[in-house]
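User: Here's a chain of 204 residues. Predict its fold as tokens.
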Amino acid sequence: MISKEENILFTAEKLFAEKGFEGTSTREISKEANVNISMISYYFGSKEKLFERIFEVRMTESLLFTKEVLANPDLNEWEKLNLIINRYTERVKRLQTFYIIMQREQLTNKNLHIVKFLNESKMGFLDIYAELIESGLRSGVFTKKPRLEFLHSTVSGIIFSSLHTLKVYKEYFKADENYENQYFDELKIHITNILKNLLGYEEN
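Assistant: Prediction complete.
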């Protein structure tokens, strides 16, 4: 069971994805969340602070699960990277509303607080990829060293382009309810195959 604060947060996330920040009122959020409008001020202070809190929660979650994978001593560098990509792709699939908001905000750069969260998240992922590549080269798991910027932009670019075009693809292929699960499963395989080539990784 989620708390009142989480209920407001997740409801607002959904509405911001559908209507944008400017197009969503606190009254709409309170009505959809079935809470008194004063609860928004109580928990978050303002609509803008609520918006910022969504980013803080989601970006923290994202880096936390990645660092947990990185700390696992039972996995080699390729297994860690592959698990991070698989979990991240599943996360984007599950939290499509948030990632639609995130991509929109990256284009506008209106809220400096959110820009800071986004930049910190990118820096965090760059650190993680850099650590995995260097460690993998030392251990012989990887035989190539791609530019860090290109590896990062390849992974994030493919995932987010695929997310934003999903609706078009579903319409084009007249997709059924199973299409989305298959789509994201095969997306993970596609990214994995590209990374194998970039890193010179060969399965035993």
